[in-house]
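> tool_call: predict_assembly(chains=four)
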Amino acid sequence: MAVSIEDVAKKANVSISTVSRVMNRRNIVNVDTRKRVESAIRELGYRPNVFARGLMLQKSCVLGLVLPNLHGEFYTEVIRGADFRARELGYQLMISSAVKNDDGNTLLSAVSGHGLVDGVAVMVSEVNAHTHDILANVSIPFVVLDGHLDGVKHDSVVIDQRYGAESMVCHLVDNCHAKRIVFVGGLDTNFDTRERLAAYRDVMGKAKLKIGPEDIYYLDYQYEPAYKLGLKRVEQWVQDDACVFAANDEMAAGIIDAAIERGISVPSELRVVGFDDTRIAQMTRPRMTTVHVPMSSMGASAVELLCRRLDEPKRPATRLTLQSELIVRVSCGAVDRFGS
Amino acid sequence: MAVSIEDVAKKANVSISTVSRVMNRRNIVNVDTRKRVESAIRELGYRPNVFARGLMLQKSCVLGLVLPNLHGEFYTEVIRGADFRARELGYQLMISSAVKNDDGNTLLSAVSGHGLVDGVAVMVSEVNAHTHDILANVSIPFVVLDGHLDGVKHDSVVIDQRYGAESMVCHLVDNCHAKRIVFVGGLDTNFDTRERLAAYRDVMGKAKLKIGPEDIYYLDYQYEPAYKLGLKRVEQWVQDDACVFAANDEMAAGIIDAAIERGISVPSELRVVGFDDTRIAQMTRPRMTTVHVPMSSMGASAVELLCRRLDEPKRPATRLTLQSELIVRVSCGAVDRFGS
DNA sequence: TTGTAAGCGTTATCAC
DNA sequence: GTGATAACGCTTACAA
């Protein structure tokens, strides 16, 4: 059996309340007794039982982080940022992936973490009523990452993707002289894809450029399907003098590779850009023009917001917006401007 | 306040012990009362308090996973495998990165997770006495991932990297007719690097091939430093007709890119291979020959071992070995064999 | 089959 | 400044 507060009390010849005081508010106890208790604690290697503590304080110092899945650079970075900040603030992080095709129970249990988390950050990338209802009934503080729930009070951290996506399309139109841009998105239910697509439509409209029926594809954010799509389409795209705007770096990488596979040069014959600025964007040949999304900051900010609410439950719901930013590298062909 | 067992008892007109029985061993209670209790539970949305439960049962159903850091494809996959299996087995996963340059406390607190985890899987990639001592004093069951602690009883899951690395070097020597192979490793204290290097030395020795003083580099597993090294060395390597064996895919990707940057063709002028078979290996041009390491299985197996020990504390310590496997793609130039 | 009551290890509220 | 003692919500003998 582990050493309990009682063992310490006996050893130091004091009552358990004194030991508890030393642990929590050391200054209100006599210096001598404190010294005695402290050395007893050290000798016995006493560490308070979290369960007993949690039972009293209703607090576990554990935060939950629920992600759509655990695949790829994007989520890793979110986790990394969250973990780091959580540790700084004295919390532990519990990770869960809200498995797709959720039966509700899965998400709920993931979110509430069997009830031992003090708060939870949830990333909801799919927009649907089901998720909304589940989250609306969660009883602990939660912050929504990269999304918003109508009619439910909660903190959220969102990315101003609109800005980044618009910058990108503007860049393509203005600096790369694109006349036609093909958009390759994730699932059409995906929140990010919708935002990025909206920005694309918007800028295209303002620039009086047409979006043809063949100009929008919905994939799933993965490399392989994008690669396959590319294999089928790149030659046509080159003929039509089109650019490709993929909704994440992985898909952009797939398309770049497909182009190269077909003997097409990027960016001189086909320009391809991505989104997120994961490390993949720096590993493609040519280096990828993309939109930087502050992934680890998202995680860190979510944790911060959560902790702040835990300290101060009554504060008004806040929505924190993080900026995205155009990163011009080589795959968009814009360097020609300077080279010429 | 959340609904407690007492609320349910009142609503169902039974005592709290009956409710408890329904929750845990439903069969020993009368069908009618059980039905009544169950509907009360459902109506009230009752969920047992984990702290109270943990206090009694000394069990939280939370497992810890401590990784050297949270960067890159490799660790993501480990997390993914662990998370999935943990959920299947009814556990939650708590993630921590054992920050480098550990002061001991950090690792210890990461490992014991403030005492609320039932067991923990630790990946120790650096071999040092300090880590050894800390882990030796952990009081909860733990399994070591990809390593072993001498003189301490514990389960472990290891990769037979030796086999994969040997296959790779043999492949390079036999099928790619390599006469000189440059090894690019991680830090020289890194466990994996040592294993892979040992296999390299071994096979080179057996093949009567020399390893020159300039043939071994210690980097840090990251893309950028490898890229920079490549920029400096590739031309020399081509002149010397050397192959490059990098200790992970990321570094291999960096070197491939550096070669291309220098106008050198891979694999016809320079052959480069990696290790791990992360998704990066499928994103390089040309596709990378590498050694597949079952990353998600590592995570899953660690969780499994942990759970088994939790069920059966007295069972003998087991060491589970997972196989690594050579994956021949294009960057090694071996396809020439079939093409010719 | 069900209820009563004694813990589990803490913290908080009182006396002293 | 310190020590009893009552919670906290649950499980589990033991009694009925």
